[in-house]
Input
Amino acid sequence: MKLRAVFASLVLTLLAATLLSHQPKADPRLAGSSIGAEKNGWIPVRLSGTPEQIGYQHGYLLTRQIDDALKVTRLNLTHDSKRDWSFYRTTAERILWPKVEEEYRQELRGMSDGLAAHGVKADVYDLVVLNASLELGYYTSALDKGKTSPAPDRCSAFVATGSYTRDGLPVIAHNNWSGYLEGARWNVIFDITPSKGHRILMDGFPGFIHSGDDFGMNTAGLVITETTITQFHGFDTNGIPEFVRARKAMQYATSIDEFVAIMKEGNNGGYANTWLVADLNSNEIGRLELGLKNVNLARTKDGYFVGANFPIDPKLTAEETDFPVQDGSVSANARRTRWEQLMKEYKGKIDQESAKKFLGDHFDAFANKANAPSERTLCGHVDLSERGLKPWQSENGPAGTVQSKAATAKMAKRMMMEAAMGHSCGIHFRAADFLKKHPQYAWLKPLLKDLPSQPWTVFEAAR
Output
C-alpha cells in the first residue's frame, strides 16, 4: 500500500513536470505591463519599456478595443469625406509615415505585432491613419479647396494659478467634445513608463500613441491640455504629424519653453489647437495658440487661460479660420463668455471641486439661461440643440461632451487625476432612443453605443 502511494506520487510529479514544460513561456515584451478591470467606464492600462515593448503591450492588451476603434475610425473617415480606406492608407504611407520619428515607428510596429498575436491584422499604415484621424480632415480640406473647414467644436478647458486658485497653485481641467460614436471609446487611462523620457499619465483612445484629446501629465512637472481652433483651415504636407509632436511633447518636455519648441518644430497645421500648459516647478501657466502661419504664446504666474474652440489672435482668425467672431450665439463664443464669468466669480476659490463643477455647467451665456444643456454650454450637448446645426457639427451624428478630467498641482505632482466618463452633469445618452428619433443616422446603428454618465474617479500612476 505504501509502495503504491509512492508510485502514484511519482507519476503525479512527472505529469506535472511534463505539463509545465509545455506551458508557453511569458513573452518578455509584456514585462511591466498590465490592464486593470474597467472602473466606472475607464480602462486603466500600464505600459513600460522600449518603444517596441510599449507598442506590443498596447496592441496585445487592448486588441479588442483597438480592433473596434479601427472600425469606428474607418466608418467616420469614409462617411465624412466620401473617400475609401485605401486613400487614407496611401496618405499615411506617402505623407505621414516618412515624418514619423523612428522611436514612434518602433512603437507602431510593436502595436501591429501585439494585435497580430491575437489574430487582428492591422499594419503600420492602418495604425497611422488611426492616430492621425483627428488631423486628416485638415489634409482632405486642403485637397478640397473651397469646402467648409472640417475643424468642429472640440472641448472646453481652463488652467488657472496664483490669485485665482484656492492654494495659489495651478488647477487644470478639460472635457472632451466629440461624436458619441468615437467618444464612448475614449475611455483609456494610460500609465506609460518609457525607457527614454518621462513617465506619462494621460487619458486616451485605444490604439493612439498620444492622448488625442490631450489631457496628461509627466514626471517632469508638466500638465498639458488643449481645445481645437474651430473652423481652422491649413495643412503642410511636409510637416510632422500632430500626433507625433503631441506625444513627443508629453514624453520629453520639462518646461513650457520645451513644450512650445517641440510643438512648433515641423508644425503641419493638422489638428490646430490652443494648448494650455501648467509648469508645476514654477507654478507658471501658458497658452500656445498654434496655427500654421500664426503662432502665439502667452504665459503668467498669476491668472488664467480658458479654451472653448475660439481663435484669439485677430491675424490668425482672419488668415486661418472662417470663424464668426461677432456672432455671440455660436458655441465657442457663448462658452468663452461663460468661462470669463466663472473665472471672475470664482477668483481665489478655484480648486478641484469647482473645476469639476465647471465641466458640468449648463448655463447658456448667450441666452442668459440656466439649466439649458446644448452646444452653447461648457458641458456640451450638441444633440440637444434646438437651433439647428452647421453641417460640420451634425453630419457625423450625435455629439458633445464624452468625458472629463481635472487635477490640482498637488494631485499632478503625485501623477494623479480625477476623471469622469460620459457627461459629468448626470445626463445619459441612449443610442436606441436617439436612433429612433433620428432615423437619418441609421448608418451609425451597428457601432453607436450608449454613453452613460459615470461618477468622478481618481486614477494614479502605479507605484
Remarks:
- The longest strand covers residues 399-408.
